[in-house]
Specification:
CATH topology of chain A: MetI-like fold
CATH architecture of the largest domain in chain B: 3-Layer(aba) Sandwich
Radius of gyration of chain A: 23 Å
Number of helices of chain B: 19
Distance between the termini of chain B: 73 Å
Strand content of chain A: under 5%
Keywords (chain A): Cell membrane, Membrane, Transmembrane, Transmembrane helix, Transport
Subcellular location (chain A): Cell membrane
Helix content of chain A: over 70%
Low-confidence stretches of chain A: none
Shape of chain A: globular
Order of helices and strands of chain A: HHHHHHHHHHHHH
Helix content of chain B: 40-55%
Largest sheet of chain B: 8 strands, mixed
Shape of chain B: globular
InterPro entries (chain A): BP-dep_ABC_trans_perm, MetI-like, MetI-like_sf
Number of strands of chain B: 10
Number of domains of chain B: 2
CATH superfamily of the largest domain in chain B: Periplasmic binding protein-like II
Low-confidence stretches of chain B: 13-20
Organism (chain A): Roseibium porphyridii
Distance between the termini of chain A: 15 Å
Number of helices of chain A: 13
CATH class of chain A: Mainly Alpha
Order of helices and strands of chain B: HEHHEHEHHEEEHHEHHHEHEEHHHHHHH
CATH superfamily of chain A: MetI-like
Oligomer: heterodimer
Family (chain A): Belongs to the binding-protein-dependent transport system permease family.
Number of domains of chain A: 1
């Protein structure tokens, strides 16, 4: 039986949820607001919240000075490529771990996760040298591979937990009805796992989009994605906060819009279960 | 005759093919400063003259250092021209990471580079980076506030003059603070300024045997003076103010004086950004009465070529173009004389057009008053004025900077800050084998 919740309590919960949500969103909101200020207004003391002369000047300057589309295209290719590549490897891997586990499956899973515990800078130099040898420095191919490798443990783990929730009995029933392995995977498992796969895909795309360590270190002029675009607007001598904010807003806008449209999928995937 | 013509044709053909074969794309790593952005906008002129094209990689100052160091050490060959500072040039040159620029052609007129800049960018007598723009530090003050307060600042003031003027101009009720100074921690932030104050009080970072000297009375006097000046007449929250924060305060009319980089002069006198553009005067950085060193620093953003680049010839052509007299004229014709890159060439300061710029004279005098080979009253084993040109300095300076920033914030006393900085420096130097 569902617990009865009083209206008062509901109101308080809603208010608290909104407050926390606003707190988390505030830095992004502030960045967006700052991008519409002049440099002088951006550092005004006391800070200006909504009542200032809104201007699009910063966007015009950023647009004029950098080739935004080139950075954007690099981001799309790298984030998209690494996600597709990652899923192609992770789906079969998670599949076998969830449905035909061996004695060492748990160990392998833990070992995969342990690679995330190593600080990235620890392997920077070896990877840099490898990239020089293979001619992959400042290429989208190189960065796509690195992004895929970095996020692979997370994808495998996420998919593994989703697949685990699908009861083996459903698959058995399908087999009893004469489904082949191919049919079983294609018509039974995949439809059931789609919310999980979709949310994994989205999360991985967001992670790859926002990654700033490898993208800054392994690129120069050609393959630099939007993270490098943001980094180019910080200045040691001269005011830059408004322009930096405009660049940041332009860099996060695509992913913010994508997240907005797919939030239903994302939430459904994260709370996913086969038998509810 | 026929043979002659044939020869000519062959020579012409060879010339054409070699020129087109040498048209390359060079990658340049740089920082996001106004003068660099202007240079990026003018690259077409370089391409038109040489046929080479340029790709820019703009990074935050510290990211740039780390990124470029890593690439040079691994021989990645990602960059053909680097934007580096005066601090790293001699260190990197000693590591054989940079290509010597001694063979630039005669028409480049290397002797025209300001002697102080040339000294700071050389190693063992060879030039390793060409100054794109140079700076010292000086006092920028509000002429209207001084007049209102009934005080004056001489062209070559002492710290006593500065303190008296700061006191007279401070009007905290109206948010006017007598002096704005750097307080934000970092070797290139507050330590650049504090080190020059120390120099002007007769202090030094190390004695001839590399023993740290922060426990000497000169250091105590210098740091106490700085702390008192900033806390009595400075803006609230000064411990987090760096160049950009103070620039904003000054432009909004909240600072009576600001002692910082000479390049700031073109920002504070620009009527588009500054509310006080026509009310700014300039003076040399001060010294303590009786001490024969002023507190002005020396810095240059310079262009260098990393060893191991495949495109050395094109890279040299770029440096030649970007740091030439013609480039300065090009900027002047497009953006006016106040916006040309300052502090690199003697001829610029001899130009009657440039002499009309209000801060030109004081910038040159400040640069000339700085000598990186002899930064302090007492002898020192190091080069550098507002820094010590050794690889350990970035760590030592930043650690000390944090102590002094905490001191300005009132979290510890002058004695505590100095004792901690001294202990840390001694430890780091011992670990480094000095």
């Amino acid at each position: 039986m569902a617990r009865s919740v009083t209206t008062r309590r509901k109101t308080i919960n809603t208010a608290v949820a909104w407050a926390i949500g606003f707190l988390i969103f505030f830095p992004i909101l502030w960045t967006i607001l700052t991008s519409f200020k002049t440099e002088a207004q951006a550092i005004n003391d006391p800070p200006l919240f909504l009542f200032f002369d809104w201007t699009l000047e910063n966007y015009a300057v950023v647009q004029e000075r950098s080739d935004y589309m080139r950075f954007l295209w690099n981001s799309v290719i790298i984030a998209g490529g690494s996600t597709v590549l990652g899923l192609m490897i992770a789906i079969p891997a998670a599949w076998s771990m969830a449905f035909v586990p061996s004695k060492r499956t748990k160990d392998i899973l833990m070992w995969m996760l342990s690679t995330k515990m190593l600080p990235a800078v620890g392997v920077l130099y070896p990877i840099y040298l490898l990239f020089i040898q293979l001619g992959l420095l400042d290429t989208r191919t190189g960065l796509t591979i690195v992004m895929m490798l970095i996020n692979l443990p997370i994808i495998v783990w996420m998919l593994y937990t989703y697949f685990k929730e699908i009861p083996g009995e459903i698959l058995e029933a399908a087999r009893m009805d004469g489904a082949s392995l191919k049919e079983e995977i294609l018509y039974i498992l995949t439809p059931m796992a789609i919310p999980g796969i979709a949310s994994t895909m989205l999360l991985n795309f967001i992670l790859a989009w926002n990654e700033a360590f490898w993208t800054l270190n392994l690129t120069a002029a050609k393959a630099a994605p939007l993270t490098a675009f943001i980094a180019s607007y910080s200045s040691p001598e001269g005011l830059f906060y408004a322009k930096l904010s405009a660049a940041s807003t332009m860099a996060i806008a695509p992913i913010l819009i994508l997240g907005w449209f797919s939030q239903k999928q994302l939430v459904r995937g994260l709370t996913f279960g086969a038998v509810k | 005759m026929y043979l002659k013509n044939a020869l000519r044709a062959v020579t012409a053909l060879t010339l054409i093919t070699t020129t087109s074969a040498f048209a390359e794309t060079i990658t340049i790593a740089t920082v996001n400063n106004g003068d660099m952005i202007r240079m990026q906008g003018l690259t077409e002129d370089f391409t038109a003259k040489t046929g080479h094209t340029v790709e820019w990689v703009t990074l935050e100052e510290n990211v740039l250092r780390q990124r470029v160091t890593q690439d040079i050490a691994a021989k990645g060959g990602q960059f053909d021209v680097l934007t580096i500072g005066m601090y790293e040039t001699p260190i990197w040159a000693a590591n054989e990471w940079l290509v010597s620029l001694d063979d630039l052609p005669a028409e480049y007129d290397k002797d025209d580079i300001l002697p102080a800049m040339r000294a700071g960018l050389s190693h063992s007598g060879s030039l390793y980076a060409a100054p794109f723009y140079g700076e010292s530090s000086m006092i920028m003050y509000r002429t209207d506030l001084l007049e209102k307060a009934g005080v004056t600042i001489p062209d070559a003031p002492t710290w006593g003059d500065v303190e008296a003027a700061a006191k007279a101009m401070t009007d905290k009720d109206n948010e006017v603070y007598g002096i704005c100074l750097r307080g934000k921690a970092g070797w290139g932030e507050n330590m650049a300024f504090i080190t020059t104050v120390a120099n002007s009080f007769g202090a030094r970072w190390f004695d001839e045997n590399w023993k740290p000297q922060l426990d000497t009375p000169e250091w105590k006097e210098a740091v106490s003076f700085y702390n008192n000046l900033l806390n009595s007449y400075g803006p609230p929250g000064a411990s987090t103010n760096g160049f950009n924060e103070n620039l904003a305060l000054f432009q909004q009319g909240k600072c009576g004086m600001w002692i910082d980089a000479t390049v700031a002069a073109s920002f504070v006198t620009n009527p588009n950004d500054s509310t006080v553009a026509d009310k700014v005067g300039f003076a040399l950085a001060p010294n303590k009465e009786g001490v024969d060193k002023r507190s002005n620093w020396l810095w240059a953003w310079a262009l260098a070529i990393p060893a191991g680049t495949q495109k050395e010839a094109a890279a040299k052509q770029f440096i030649e173009w970007a740091t030439s007299k013609e480039y300065i004229e090009l900027v002047a014709s497009k953006e006016g004389w106040a916006n040309v890159p300052p502090g690199a060439r003697t001829s610029l300061y001899e130009n009657p057009e440039y002499q009309k710029v209000p801060f030109a004279k004081m910038t040159l005098e400040s640069i000339n008053a700085a000598n990186p080979d002899s930064p302090t009253v007492k002898p020192v084993p190091y080069v550098g004025i507002q820094y010590v040109a050794i690889p350990e300095w970035a760590g030592i300076g930043t650690a000390a900077g944090q102590e002094f920033s905490a001191m300005v914030a009132g979290q510890q006393t002058v004695d505590e800050a100095l004792a901690k900085a001294q202990a840390n420096t001694a430890e780091e130097m011992e670990a480094a084998g000095y």
